[in-house]
Amino acid sequence: MQVSVRLFAGLREIMGSDLLGVELEGDSATVQILREALSLKYPKLHPYLTGVAIAVNEEYILSDESELTDGDSVALVPPIAGGSLEALVTTEILTPAKMRQGLNDDKAGAVVIFEGVVRNHHEGRNVVRLEYEAYEEMATKQLASIREEILEYFQDQEVYKVHIWHRIGILEIGEVSLLVGVCAAHRADAFEAALRAVDRVKETVPVWKKEWSADGSHWQEGVMPRP
After folding, report:
1. Is 225 a domain residue?
2. With a threshold of 0.90, does the pTM exceed it?
């Protein structure tokens, strides 16, 4: 059987490619077998394989005993530094006013819009710009999933709408990389829902950041995805 393996961010640069083809014995194999095969065939990947999450056909896999089948699309998702009007991944400039238009509801007493912006420093280093990369298809699905998760979590607290937009590409200092908008009956619930949504974006969405400075560039270390 054969599976395709997609690489992102630092892993892509290490291998010099964003796609690998891997042959596995038999008609099926586990994720653990794939990790072992990758380690043997691509020694450069070996140090990183225990520190990545696995997605199969754009869904996170929670166990290395999960079965793979011929033709599966597998993604190695490095630690995360991540559409529709409700859940959007885009290269376009993000504008809060545009998001605000979709958050109107006569029942609402509060609308909260969070803006994540590019700052000029990180861990004591000067930053001149950031470059965001995403596994776009999966990132869009994850944003939609977070939206549904937040609406379900706050279903008894009159949270009516949740919109999440993430920009990718090269962003300059001060530009907006993330917008999260919440429409709710009460301000406390709107703020809480927005904060929870932002945290879940950071935990689960496959978006990575390359930091550019006067000395060059490097990928920011992130956290292991938490599906």
Report:
1. no
2. no
> Using one digit for the tens of pLDDT, what is the confidence trace for 176-210?
999 999 999 999 999 999 999 999 999 999 999 99
Whether residue 30 is contained in a domain is answered as yes
Comparing CA positions, the residue from 64, 65, 85 lying closest to residue 76 is 64
Helices (H) and strands (E) counted in the chain, each on its own, are: 5, 17
Whole-angstrom distance, CA of residue 150 vs CA of residue 223: 21
Domain extent, residue 47, equals 2-77
Question: Do 99 and 72 fall into the same domain?
Answer: no
In a domain, 142, yes or no: yes
Find out whether 200 and 123 touch, Cβ atoms under 8 Å. Answer: no
Report the C-alpha gap between 9 and 90 in whole angstroms.
17
SS (H, E, C) 67-84: EEECCCEEEEECCECCCC
104 and 45 share one domain? no
